[in-house]
Every structure is written in structure tokens, then in C-alpha cells.
Amino acid sequence: MNLQPRMLEVRKNVLKQNDVIARALRDRFRAQGTLAVSLVSSPGAGKTTFLEKALTLLKPHYRVAALVGDLATENDALRLARSKVPVKQITTGTLCHLEAAMVEHALEDWNLDQLDLLFVENVGNLVCPASYDLGEDLRLVLLSVTEGEDKPLKYPTIFNSADAAVITKIDLAAAVEFDELAANANIQAVRPGMRVFKVSAKTDEGMDNCLQFLSDALAERSRKNICLDLAASAS
After folding, report:
1. Count of alpha carbons within 13 angstroms of residue 175, beta-carbon side
2. pTM here?
3. Cβ neighbours around 93 below 10 Å, total
4. Of 28, 133, 134, 189, whose Cβ has the fewest other Cβ atoms within 10 Å?
5. With contact defined as beta carbons under 8 Å apart, do 48 and 78 qualify?
6. In angstroms, rounded to a whole number, what is the distance separating the alpha carbons of residues 199 and 205?
7. Residue ranges per domain, the chain?
8. Closest C-alpha to 21, from 106, 127, 82
9. Please, what's the largest Cα pairwise distance for the chain?
10. Do residues 55 and 85 make contact, with C-beta atoms less than 8 angstroms apart?
11. CATH number of 17-222
């Protein structure tokens, strides 16, 4: 007996419910003026190190916080807590990705109107997270120089669903003979026109450009909210 149609229908229903919650989250973020940024990558690409550095550099200028997803342990949350910003761990158990309902639950006791930037670090995986909208405004996909240049070609869906790519551990590029031109060509082949940032969380190289991208997005969010408020007042 072929069960494929039944399996596809179950998956469709799960994603539909996730999308409903994600839209509600996105509306909530916009209403509160919070820019939500999700981070996706394979395990070991440097998401947590990048995020810890980003939180540390952004803290003097913005109200920032982070949600961190992992199958088990609170190791990443403990690391990020060193940045002295609000951090909460989301433990997924057997799930290889975060879902919008998990983010919604984690935010129940947080006041979003007191946050400018919210980072959501997904579980290390380049497959499952691609299908699940978390209500984020921006999705950054991270690729480390130690992984090789062909990751975008092997996992095109996650790169195609992202808004920008971040090449991490750039300080190791020469040592691992990373081909930057090939990596960029592969990213553009999957997502033409995608912004690509090269960073080293260890040396801070490129961090300013990447964080300026986020600052500009936050400024644009504030501008749009002001315009909406003015339009509402005029009506």
C-alpha cells in the first residue's frame, strides 16, 4: 500500500500551522519595532561564536537578545550569556530544527517593545530549517571556510531561502586553501544578487560591515513604522 499521499498531507498540515504562527510572530515583531534575525548553518560553522561577538558589539548601541536552539544541553546559551544580554535556550529534543511555536513559547515572558534586535540561532542543520518560517525579518546563512566552497550547491534550498550569506572563520582561509571566488560563484548561482559578508569573530574582520547591514535593516524598520503611524493618525 502506498502511504506517500498521506505522509505528504501530514507534512503540509504541519507547515501550514507553522506558517500561521510565523505570520503572527512577524506581525508582533513589526508592531513592537523589533528586528528578528535568524541564523542557520551546518554544525561547527561558527554560529554561536559569531553571535556572541555580534551581541557584544551591538549591546552598547541597541537592546539585543537571543534565542538559541539545540537538540540538547544549554551550552550555547551559557556561552552567549557572557555577552550580558537576555538569552534563552530552546531544547528541541529529537527535532533537527526550530519551529515557530517554539519561538512563540520562548518569548512568552519577554517584552518585545524593550528589544531592538532579536537573534534566533537555529539548530545546526542545512536541511530541515529551510522549510520552517520562524517569523524572522532576515535569515542569515553561515558558511565557514573549513567546510569547502560547494555547500551552496549541495544545500541550495537553505541558501535560496536566506537574505544574506556570511562566510565565517575567514582568518583560516589561507590555511585551508579556501577558494573565495568559487564560494561566491556558488552562492550567486543559487541566489543571484545575494549579499555576502566575510567575517572572523576571532579577529573582528568584516564584523562591522555585517552588523551595519543589520543596523540599516533596523533603521528601515523604524522608518516604516513611523510612516505607518503617521498614516494612521492622518486617517
Report:
1. 8
2. 0.89
3. 7
4. 189
5. no
6. 5
7. 17-222
8. 106
9. 62
10. yes
11. 3.40.50.300
